[in-house]
Design goal:
With about 600 residues, this protein is an alpha+beta fold. It is built from 16 helices and 31 strands. The strands form eight sheets. Strands 3, 7, 8, 9, 10, 11, 12, 21 and 24 form a nine-stranded mixed β-sheet that branches. Strands 16-14-15-17-20 form a five-stranded mixed β-sheet. A five-stranded mixed β-sheet has the order 28-27-29-30-31, with helices on both faces. Helix 1 (about 20-30) crosses helix 12 and helix 6 (about 165-185) runs antiparallel to helix 16 (about 565-585). The longest helix has 21 residues, at about 165-185. It is globular. The mean pLDDT is about 95. The structure holds one RNA strand of 78 nucleotides.
Length: about 600
RNA sequence: CGGGGAGUAGCGCAGCCCGGUUAGCGCACAGCGUUUGGGACGCUGGGGUCGGAGGUUCAAAUCCUCUCUCCCCGACCA
């Protein structure tokens, strides 16, 4: 490609709205442009990168028996009503009506349509298993898009779906897809970790998230220093070490003016926050099975712990949680800031207590009247619970649930996920098959997603320096950036550059040829910004020695190549660029 | 939805507090000339509903009201 013809306008300064390096570089290098919040255009260079990633995805999906197809973006509400997600999903689902007034939506994922397709076409065990995938546009009306391509509303996703006769067959297949995911990310230059995760609104029995570890990530990953345990903080458990058992002491009231925080309370009573119980008031929207009613939830966690809303949501089978208002809190007989499970109206509230609280004797808890607390409150004796379970966050320094080692927190970007869905969608959309005996069973289903734009952003976050992007060869928009340094009059240099452009292209290389009438500095800077791995500079100075200059973008190494054998001498460097990706790919796939 | 910040030329910004000719600067863009291996220089030029709508005033980018958009933190996140 000749740069003189390329739709390309580099920016010397990044637009003010871009904070993340990846976002700034994508804009400055002319890969993308934002149209409105969370909605982007891919410009020609960005499109090349996108195609490279899509090619990787196709190759790896095909390797695990995936068959490519494509589903529509605009879908009838009917399918989403059948699965229940028309109601379960909130405003993230972009809803609209067609001209006849029929409810429609833009697909945010395709479990329903896929299950519907299979329901209509597959009816025998002989047809299973099936794996299908697509690389297609998703729309999710995010409340807050952020970080450039990190969280957007419209995006390209590779989503794959597999269908099996039973759980065992899925369990058998799943590791193949899991490995394919590692291969995709590693071939793109990214090392990732796979972690246990929450199922969220997908439903199902088990899920993994593939995380690119990075401080810009929106997810928190809990990892063990001693073993391989890792999980999303939303679901991470930890070993809770209860304090020594003690004889329950008589409960007594204590005057604690102004102590409406745990820290102030522990301070005044000269005790540890671990000796206190914290009350939290939430209102849960319960699931459809529970008639979508609102339920006041009274949570008790130890003062040194944080409530984990995902765990709580799952524990009580809620659709949504919100903080209770002061008025709601008073109605059930509690006092904001001095709330206590002792004496609340059990008829109106659901009391959920973290299991550690029940094993911690003689805690300080609120007295449900301003400026007063109780000492020596004991779960079971002084108040009852509707549910006792783990509802708190794992934190730095907690003990690993597997080996007891020290846990630590790190941020990560979710670049992919896999869900064992079970039969939720098969049953609701009628995807059943007949076995050898003629008995009917719901098809066991799984889905697997990778966000293309987010992956590109992660790659750039990982591979950049102060001058620009440093693409891994596998996903670079072009392999070679040929730069002609000559001013207009130097025909012998131009002739050589033109000849080289032909030769390199002829040799099957993807060449971006800077034939613009620009000064050398501009071309060098644009080349560094765009970040193609191999830069070849053709100029009078080198040609006088019969040489052209090769610069490796990642290492900044320079080599003089024989101008008459550029292809030959370039080859080892190309192979070296590929080699480190191969090394990454060769690493064992973690469990 | 809560908190914070910002909208002035394609990009980066100044001007606003304290209202007053044709709204400025750098980069980018066009023409001419000189330059030509790490973001050149000179001259000339084009490009603006000052986010929008109301209002105050002799006069509004500037003051007031409403509103839209974008960014950041939080909530949310299939």
């Amino acid at each position: 490609m000749r740069m003189s013809k390329l739709f390309f306008h580099s920016l010397r300064e990044a637009p003010a709205e871009a904070e993340l390096v990846s976002h700034q570089l994508m804009l400055r290098a002319g890969l993308i442009r934002q149209v409105t919040s969370g909605i982007f255009e891919y410009l020609p260079l960005g499109m090349r990168v996108k195609h490279k990633i899509e090619r990787l995805l196709r190759e790896e999906m095909d390797r695990v028996d995936g068959q490519e197809m494509v589903m529509p973006v605009a879908l009838p509400a009917e399918l989403w009503r059948k699965s229940g997600r028309w109601y379960a999903v909130g405003d993230d689902l972009m809803r609209m009506k067609d001209r006849t007034g029929r409810d429609m939506c833009l697909a945010m994922t395709h479990e329903e349509v896929m299950a519907d397709l299979v329901a209509r076409s597959v009816n025998s065990y002989r047809h299973l298993p099936i794996v299908m995938y697509q690389i297609q546009t998703k729309f999710r009306d995010e409340p807050r898009p952020r970080g450039g391509m990190l969280r957007v509303r419209e995006f390209t996703m590779k989503d794959a779906y597999s269908f099996h006769v039973d759980q065992a067959d899925l369990d058998d297949y799943y590791p193949r897809m899991y490995e394919a995911y590692f291969r995709v990310f590693r071939r793109a230059g990214l090392d990732v970790v796979a972690i246990e995760s929450d199922m969220g609104i997908m439903g199902g029995t088990m899920a993994h998230e593939f995380m690119a570890m990075s401080d810009i990530g929106e997810d928190t990953i809990v990892q063990c220093r001693g073993c391989t345990y890792r999980a999303n903080r939303q679901v991470a458990s930890f070993r809770k070490d209860p304090p020594p058992a003690a004889e329950p002491l008589p409960m007594e009231e204590v005057h604690t003016p102004g102590t409406d925080t745990i820290a102030a309370l522990a301070d005044m009573l000269d005790t540890d926050t671990a000796q206190t119980a914290k009350a939290l008031f939430l209102v849960a929207l319960l699931s459809e099975q529970d008639q979508n009613r609102e339920q006041f939830v009274f949570c008790v966690v130890r003062g040194d712990m944080e409530l984990n809303e995902t765990k709580l949501t799952n524990a009580i089978n809620a659709v949504h949680l919100r903080p209770a208002t002061e008025a709601e809190i008073r109605v059930v007989g509690a006092e904001p800031g001095f709330g206590s499970p002792v004496g609340v109206d059990r008829g109106q509230v659901m009391v959920v207590v973290d299991d550690l609280v029940c094993e911690s004797p003689n805690l300080v808890a609120g007295a449900n009247r301003p400026d007063w607390h109780y000492r020596n409150v004991n779960c079971g004796r002084d108040y009852g619970a509707d549910l006792v379970t783990d509802i708190v966050n794992a934190d730095n320094g907690h003990a690993c649930p597997v080996c007891g080692g020290e846990l630590y927190l790190q941020r990560g970007v979710e670049v992919g996920n896999t869900f064992k869905l079970g039969t939720k969608y098969s049953e609701s959309l009628g995807a059943y098959y007949q076995d050898e005996k003629g008995d009917s069973h719901p098809i066991v289903m799984a889905s697997y997603g990778i966000g293309v734009g987010r992956l590109i952003a992660c790659i750039i976050e990982n591979f950049n320096d102060e001058d620009g992007i440093q693409w891994p060869l596998s996903v670079a928009p072009y392999q070679v950036h040929l730069v002609c340094l000559a001013p207009a009059g130097q025909t012998e240099v131009w002739d050589k550059a033109e000849a080289l452009y032909g030769e390199l292209s002829e040799a099957g290389l993807e060449v971006l040829y800077d034939d613009r009438q620009e000064r050398a500095g501009v071309k060098f800077n644009d080349a560094d910004l765009v970040g193609i791995p191999l830069q070849i500079a053709v100029g009078r100075r080198g040609l006088a020695q019969g040489k052209v200059e090769l610069k490796l973008r990642r290492s900044s190494e320079r080599h003089m190549l024989d101008a008459d054998n550029v292809c030959g001498e370039l080859n080892p460097h190309l192979q070296a660029e590929q080699a480190w990706l191969d090394d990454l790919l060769a690493l064992p796939v973690p469990d």
